[in-house]
């Protein structure tokens, strides 16, 4: 925020006392999406409070703070001091209201009301308003490491909220305590349900819990059993979880710990009746990292006395960990055989002994390598001084030669096996809701959107360190981050739908147009717009340029979003451009 009397480009406005200049970047755009969802009104409705700072306004301020790059809670007041609060929040709330005490009280009230309930209701609104495709809900969990001791969580009567404790760290920080976050996302990673879990929660148990609720959650989106396909990673595949699936459809990955997994892969590799489905990547990659080619093989597996459809998938971009393991196996095979061969003598006095040794050497052959042994006669001069007038007398010896040769067929087979994984599903191959192997793989690979969501939630630029002492406030802050993620993904979805519907492109990196715009790309581009605020009036000092307007149009907005506190984005849908 700049005082007009000190801004050298605004000399004509010097007579207006209290005039301020703002450069908000993309925050007014995010605020317009929040208004379209009715975020403030929904939170105020679900969170009873008698505080002057309404919970909905507090949530909106923290969401915008998060999307600006995130400052710690104790600095949100400073962040809001430099903003046009009436434009962003819909009312001119004093910046002093956003002190850490008021925000902490808001987080407490949110936790008491139920943070997951707020996310669920907001997810329902997002689905209805933006017409999200909710037929493929994807589920996953992640861990967030914390630096504090959180000893209260280890007491006999722990404080309310997720238990902050040691568990399996997906951050690679096992020495730190943590909490878990679960997400249920649809339509390219837009969260419609989320919750914090105890730091030692098991993914298998978490899947079981969500499976008991999935029918209820999806029914609120107008989808009954058979109308949606639940997608989760291999932690979902347990006997109890498969029982919980019931009549719902699912896609998961069969863990390699199941014998049926190895049997199905061996069957596919042996049969060699693959169906080539080519590349599935949406974007091209450099020559140093070519896109993977896929092929599939249909079969069935029996788990816990029930038969499931199994699709064996082979990727030309082999799993690096499994390939490294195979390389070690091949090297160890050579090393083991060579070690045994060194125990054999190389020269024998008796031909029979040499041939017996050759046979023993060949018996050292394994699945990956074959030992080829040969015996050849060798004339060796007898000891002593040879006679002058006669030929040098010799003795016949027998030399054993061994060569270790790779079995290319077997090694190629093992490499094929290492490049395979098995998709487990009850989705039919024919009739209603049918999916072929390619569609199943595409659907399962959509799980990466949830993983990229976790990258957003744990990005140091977004989260920084979590300066909260109580688990209940961590739970409420996690809700803020998930709502921020929802807005971030909705903005990205709107731009991509616009590009898809209009067959146009948006400005991308390095002055190149792109048909895959991202919210980060937009946030980086929307800079330099300046607005002067004099009382209730706002005017541009530096208007949006063509690059800015291109993004605004794709987001269902006009330049008025930087001037009008009541501006809401128009909804971009797959069927029509503006609703």
Molecular structure report:
It is a single chain. The protein has 579 residues and is an alpha+beta fold. Among the domains are: 2-114 and 467-562, no CATH class; 322-384 and 391-413, no CATH class. Helices cover 39% and strands 20% of the residues. It is built from 19 helices and 18 strands. The protein has a 6-stranded mixed β-sheet, with helices on both faces. A hairpin with a 5-residue loop joins strand 15 (506-507) and strand 16. Helix 3 (55-67) crosses helix 17.
What is the structure about, briefly put?
With about 575 residues, the chain is an alpha+beta fold.
Keywords:
579 residues; 4-stranded antiparallel sheet; alpha+beta; 39% helix; 6-stranded mixed sheet
Task: Report the structural category.
Answer: alpha+beta
Question: Using only CA atoms, what is the Rg?
Answer: 33 Å
Describe the biggest sheet? 6 strands, mixed
Q: Shape, please?
A: elongated
Helix content: 25-40%
Termini, distance in Å?
Answer: 35 Å
Strand content: 15-25%
Q: Compute the number of helices.
A: 19
Roughly what is the average pLDDT, rounded to an integer?
87
What strand order characterises the main sheet?
Answer: 6-7-14-10-9-8
Number of strands: 18
Q: Report low-confidence residues grouped into runs of 5 or more.
A: 1-16
How would you summarize the topology of this molecule?
Layout: E1 2-3, E2 20-22, H1 27-37, H2 39-46, H3 55-67, H4 76-81, H5 85-89, H6 100-113, H7 115-129, E3 138-146, E4 177-186, E5 190-197, H8 203-219, E6 229-231, H9 239-245, E7 249-253, H10 259-271, E8 275-279, E9 293-303, E10 306-315, H11 320-341, E11 347-348, H12 351-362, E12 369-381, E13 394-406, H13 408-418, E14 420-425, H14 437-445, H15 448-457, H16 460-463, H17 471-502, E15 506-507, E16 513-514, H18 519-525, E17 530-534, E18 537-542, H19 546-554
Parallel strand pairs: 6-7
Antiparallel strand pairs: 1-2, 2-17, 3-4, 4-5, 7-14, 8-9, 9-10, 10-14, 11-13, 12-13, 15-16, 17-18
């Amino acid at each position: 925020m700049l005082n007009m009397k000190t801004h050298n480009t605004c000399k004509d406005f010097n007579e207006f006392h209290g005039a301020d200049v703002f450069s908000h970047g993309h925050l007014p755009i995010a605020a317009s999406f929040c208004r379209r969802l009715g975020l403030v009104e929904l939170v105020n409705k679900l969170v009873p409070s008698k505080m002057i700072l309404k919970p909905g306004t507090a949530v909106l301020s923290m969401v915008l703070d998060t999307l600006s790059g995130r400052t710690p809670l104790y600095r949100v007041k400073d962040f809001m001091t430099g903003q046009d609060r009436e434009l962003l929040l819909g009312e001119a709330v004093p910046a002093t209201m956003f002190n850490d005490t008021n925000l902490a009280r808001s987080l407490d009230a949110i936790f008491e009301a139920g943070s997951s309930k707020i996310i669920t209701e907001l997810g329902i609104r997002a689905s209805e308003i933006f017409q999200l495709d909710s037929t493929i809900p994807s589920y996953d969990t992640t861990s967030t490491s914390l630096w504090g001791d959180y000893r209260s969580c280890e007491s006999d009567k722990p404080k309310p909220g997720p238990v902050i404790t040691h568990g399996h760290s997906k951050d690679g920080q096992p020495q730190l305590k943590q909490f878990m976050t679960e997400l249920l996302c649809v339509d390219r990673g837009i969260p419609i349900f989320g919750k914090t879990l105890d730091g030692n929660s098991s993914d298998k148990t978490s899947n079981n819990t969500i499976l008991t609720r999935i029918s209820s959650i999806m029914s609120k989106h107008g989808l009954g059993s058979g109308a949606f396909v639940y997608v989760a990673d291999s932690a979902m595949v347990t006997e109890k979880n498969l029982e919980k699936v019931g009549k719902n459809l699912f896609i998961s990955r069969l863990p390699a710990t199941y014998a049926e997994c190895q049997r199905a892969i061996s069957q596919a590799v042996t049969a060699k009746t693959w169906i080539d489905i080519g590349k599935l990547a949406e974007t091209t990659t450099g020559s140093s990292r070519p896109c993977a080619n896929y092929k599939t093989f249909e079969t069935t597996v029996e788990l816990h006395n029930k038969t499931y459809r199994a699709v064996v998938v082979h990727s030309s971009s082999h799993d690096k960990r499994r390939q490294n393991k195979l390389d070690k196996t091949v090297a160890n095979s050579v090393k083991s055989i060579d070690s045994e061969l060194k125990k054999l003598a190389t020269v024998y006095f008796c031909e029979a002994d040499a041939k017996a040794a050759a046979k023993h050497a060949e018996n050292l052959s394994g699945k990956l390598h074959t030992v080829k042994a040969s015996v050849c006669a060798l004339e060796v001069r007898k000891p002593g001084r040879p006679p002058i007038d006669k030929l040098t007398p010799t003795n016949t010896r027998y030399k054993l030669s061994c060569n270790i040769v790779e079995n290319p067929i077997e090694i190629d087979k093992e490499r094929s096996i290492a490049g395979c994984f098995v998709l487990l599903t009850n989705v039919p191959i024919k009739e209603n809701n049918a999916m072929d192997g390619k569609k199943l793989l595409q659907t399962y690979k959509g799980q990466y959107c949830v993983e990229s969501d976790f990258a957003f939630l744990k990005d140091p630029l977004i989260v920084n360190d979590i300066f909260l002492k109580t688990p209940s406030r961590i739970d409420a802050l996690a809700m803020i981050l998930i709502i921020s993620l929802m807005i971030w993904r909705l903005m990205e979805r709107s731009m991509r739908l616009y590009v898809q519907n209009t067959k146009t492109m948006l400005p991308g990196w390095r002055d190149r147009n792109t048909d895959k715009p991202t919210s980060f790309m937009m946030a980086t581009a929307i800079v330099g717009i300046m607005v002067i605020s004099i009382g209730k009036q706002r005017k541009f000092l530096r208007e949006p340029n063509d690059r800015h307007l291109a993004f605004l149009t794709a987001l269902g907005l006009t330049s008025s979003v930087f001037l009008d506190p009541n501006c809401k984005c128009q909804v971009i849908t797959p069927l029509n451009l503006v609703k």
